[in-house]
Amino acid sequence: MALVKLVWFVPEEALDATRDAVFEAGAGRIGDYERCSWYAAGTGTFFGREAASPTLGERGREERVAELRVETVVPAERLETVVAALRGAHPYEEPAYDVYPLLDA
């Protein structure tokens, strides 16, 4: 089964909601283990333009917010469903996430 790594950035108070959503959609399984993920704290930055409605901070100024970087694996065929679940559970207007292919070595 081909896997990809999904990485997203989220405020700490939304960590459990986003993890629950992606796990329920089929992410986070490694062998006989479920709900596998890794996360670490960092600082996200953004500048909301005039049409933006930021969840945190204000438009028209650069913001710095405490966030967690969360990583998990996703079966490639479930990626669209998992990303839709992440977007539905995420509090941000435009959630930031990355998808990386994984090599089967």
Description:
The chain has helices at residues 15-24, 79-89, and strands at residues 3-10, 38-47, 62-75, 97-101. Strands 2-3-1-4 form a four-stranded antiparallel beta sheet. By secondary structure, the chain is α+β, with helices and mostly antiparallel strands.
Q: Secondary-structure map with pairings?
A:
Layout: E1 3-10, H1 15-24, E2 38-47, E3 62-75, H2 79-89, E4 97-101
Antiparallel strand pairs: 1-3, 1-4, 2-3
Q: Can you summarize the main beta sheet?
A: 4 strands, antiparallel
Backbone shape: elongated
- Helical stretch count? 2
Helix content: 10-25%
Kindly provide the radius of gyration, computed on alpha-carbon positions and rounded to a whole number of angstroms. Answer: 15 Å
Q: How many strands in all?
A: 4
As a percent range, the share of strand residues is 35-45%
